[in-house]
Amino acid sequence: MNSLEIILWLLALGAGSVSGYYTCLATNWTFFWVGILVVPVAFLLFFGLWVLFLVIWGACLKTKEERPNFSRFYYHVIYVTDATFLRVVNVSFRWHGLQKMPKDHHFVLVCNHLSNFDQMILIAALRRRNQPMAWISKPENMSFPIAGPFIHHAGFIPINRTNPIEGMKSLQKGVRYIQENQCCVGICPEGTRNKTDAVLLDFHPGSFSMAIWAKVPTVVICLKHTKEIKKRSPWRHTCVSIDVVDVIQPEEYVDKRPSDISARARAAILEDLETAY
After folding, report:
1. Is the pLDDT of residue 173 over 70?
2. Residue 35: exposed, middle, or buried by beta-carbon count in 10 A (0-12, 13-18, 19+)?
3. Which residues contact 70 (CB under 8 A, 6 or more apart)?
4. In DSSP terms, which residues pair with 219 in a beta bridge?
5. Mean pLDDT lowest for which of 34-38, 41-45, 98-102, 182-186?
6. pLDDT on residue 26
7. What is the 3-state secondary structure (H, E, C) of the chain?
8. The pLDDT value given to residue 28
9. Which of 34, 70, 87, 237 makes an SS bond possible with 155, Cβ 3.0 to 4.6 Å?
């Protein structure tokens, strides 16, 4: 449970206690049931007020100027909101192969891209491990309602997929984040959400250049079931699988091109997906 959830539950418990006290003086049981009914409703109400506060706050943030560095403060705002939202929509996650993850240094994370919940899941999952991560993202996400201003100020990196030179600059910024020990960097090498019937789209090999330039491990993750969240939530629980299918160490980059690393990573994710389905 994150700090925002704790605050919201405390406020909700307070609201439930006050409501129970003032609406029932007959018996203690009445007090109990009124409190039980009010608390979850109050929690949702207070979370809605938090989101409204973010809308107002975000409207006051400037989003036209490029952010030169990663901001742990704004990243924490994103994390507590993401984690609480996932709780509200009845989503949890389960790690597989967590022991493979580097603990003592930064890395580049690559994963398949199934839905708009992918980055939210990974932000919540990695923040618990105290591994903040800037994401390489399409520029349109920086203007996304509510989240856009905050991911911009957190230092997420927009990438121009139609201009190779500008795209290279974005990747180099990711390398700088890692080399300056600011954060890890995540990217979806498919380049876009998989809206097709294919199990996995082709990868863009350039996505793997960051890890080679920064000389850090490439953590390859396979996400499962994030597509189901939209259909099931909030009434039915969805458990997302986060599978660490491969960790490619820097010494394995020797005499390898980005396309070689890309092929290995894609094969590992594809094998995991085909085994599941």
Report:
1. yes
2. buried
3. 132, 134, 154, 155, 177, 182, 183
4. 109, 247
5. 34-38
6. 47
7. CCHHHHHHHHHHHHHHHHHHHHHCCCCHHHHHHHHHHHHHHHHHHHHHHHHHHHHHHHHCCCCCCCCCCCCHHHHHHHHHHHHHHHHHCCEEEEEECHHHCCCCCCCEEEECCCCCCHHHHHHHHHHCCCCCEEEEECHHHHHCCCHHHHHHHCCCEECCCCCHHHHHHHHHHHHHHHHCCCCEEEECCCCCCCCCCCCCCCCCHHHHHHHHHHCCCEEEEEEECHHHHHHHCCCCCEEEEEEEEEEECHHHHCCCCHHHHHHHHHHHHHHHHHHHC
8. 54
9. 70
Which of 40, 58, 76 delimits the end of a domain? 58
Residue type, 103: K
Residue-wise pLDDT for 158-167, tens only, equals 998 788 888 8
Quote the tokens at residue 36: 């039980």
Closest by CA to 118, choosing from 38, 212, 189, is 189
The letter for the amino acid at 107 is: F
Nearest 5 degrees, angle CA 260-CA 240-CA 273? Answer: 40
User: Which one, of 34, 213, 42, 223, lies nearest residue 119 by Cα?
Assistant: 223
Q: Can you tell me which residue has the tokens 């458990």?
A: 239
Residue with tokens 């207070």: 46
Tens digits of residue pLDDT in 223-239: 999 999 999 999 999 99
Global pTM? 0.90
- Report residue 84 as tokens: 């609480």
Task: List the CATH number of the domain containing 192.
Answer: 3.40.1130.10
Number of domains in the chain: 2
